[in-house]
Amino acid sequence: MTAEGKPGIYYLSGDTTNLSAVWIARMFLRLQYWHASIQVSGATVKNRKSADAAIRFHASRLHGPAAVGGPATLELAYTPLGEVQWARASSLDEFLVERYCVYSWFGRRYYRIETHHLPWPLQAAHVELRVNTMAEPLGLVLPVQPDLCHYSRALKMLTWAPERLRL
Question: Residue 102 and residue 107: Cα distance in Å, rounded?
Answer without folding.
Answer: 17
